[in-house]
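Subgroup meeting minutes
Present: P.N., E.W., G.H.
Scribe: E.W.

1. P.N. recapped why we're keeping a running log of single-chain structure predictions: easier to compare across weeks, and new members can see raw inputs and outputs side by side.
2. G.H. added today's entry (252 aa).
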Amino acid sequence: MEKIYMIPVNDAYMADCECPICFLKKKAENDYLDYYLGPSLMEPDTRKITNKTGFCPEHMGKLNKRETARLGLGLMLHTHLKDLSEDVTKDIKAAAPGKATLLKGRSSEYKSKLNAIADKIDKRVASCPICEKINYSLERYLEVIMYMFSKDSDFRARFAERKSHCLPHTAMLLRSAASNLSQNDVSDFINLLADNNAIQFSELIADVEWFTLKFDYRNNDKPWGNSKNAIQRSMRFLSADRSDFDEQQGKK
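Output recorded in log:
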């Protein structure tokens, strides 16, 4: 019997997508983007978090693209900037060597202060609650995938039918299998995963090669086949499902 926590995983493995984990990640990301631009942005607990963390550059850009919620983004940025300014501005000023120290001669003490405030700024700029929530969600989804593979024969068959998973998520599946599957199940799981990814490698290698050969004038009149978007598909396979690849070239 299908449990509620299995539904997103089954949906991902039945979807017409290049990588089911990318599919799950994208859905989780969209849900969290909506969450932080929705009513939650006026909740004190949420604002305490966003004041301290802000968002990573990637998710800041994606929040900005949701033009219907610009006011919410502005409210969050206003209080985040105030918090950040209060936290680092004085430290930056204090890191400058004092005149009295300069008169005493050269000292390297100021260098450690500069590096410390730089590390502090890096840590704050890199923090992102959306990234943290996505990573947590993916860890739970991977556990569900392992459970379903070991307990649900229909899902195991569905997993076997997948063409591949992108390489970053293949690595995640390998680690999750090591932690969550029995030795017998690991043997079946890894063989299926390896076979499916081998097919994807073979197809991409052939398609990328034909893409390059199409630039030879002797092949002008020959059909593109599946190679026209081989570059974008290869980038997604190597680097996970990246929306910037799709926006630049159009997902084929």
